[in-house]
Amino acid sequence: MGVGGLVAELTAVRHGQSVANVAFPAARAAGRLDAGVPGRDADVELTALGCEQAAALGRALAADPPIVRPPEVVVCSPYLRARRTYGIAADAAARAGVTLPAPVIDDRLVDRLMGRLELMTMAAVEARFPAEAERRRAAGQWDYRPPGGENFPDIARRLGSLLADLHRDHADRRVLVVAHDAVVVMLRQLIEGLSYDELGRIAVEGGVLNAGITRFTRDGDRLVLAEFNTATHLAGVRADGAG
Predict the structure, then answer these.
(1) Cβ contact 82:180 at 8 Å
(2) Which residue ranges form the domains of the chain, and what is each CATH number?
(3) How far apart are CA 61 and CA 124, in angstroms?
(4) What is the pLDDT of residues 70-99, one digit of tens each?
(5) Helices (DSSP H) in 48-148: which residue ranges?
């Protein structure tokens, strides 16, 4: 065991740009109720740009010196966009001569579960489920739990369990988590003790970037934030792969 039984370093990366990341803002801008993303949230694919962002992440992990030291343990969300992000990153790192670990898939890293409202725009919720829209306004964005879904304290509980397991099973090791913006935000709350007001400022300041790097390092008996939303590895990345 290391100091306090902690991982040496925890790096959290949001998946590359997904089809939904493009479709939902476009629907909002056009005033459409339907974002046009069929199927399940778990099956949403990466865009061409998202694939290039994932490859850039892999090159960053394999750089000499690396932008982030290669992980010794990788834990990934089961959602397709997260698994694809890491798969592409690992392939890019391998082409650069660095072999990354096979990922462990953990259901506790799923995106926020929205239940009956999955893949619905807020405009669609207002139109089709006005009582739910009002309930969300009354509860607030952090505490609102959609039917069959989760609120943010629910996410914190499953991530708290995951962190405890990582510290127990992978003390002194560098761990990479590949997941979703809600996961990155709630890891910050759990590790840093941020308030909801502080979390809200993250959203106001642009949210969690696709393929952005957030990293915590061990300082004595705790983890501390070393960097948030680092995106230098994405400079010049383009959907056609020319960047």
Answers:
(1) yes
(2) 3-234 (3.40.50.1240)
(3) 40
(4) 999 999 999 999 999 999 999 999 999 999
(5) 48-62, 80-95, 122-128, 130-139
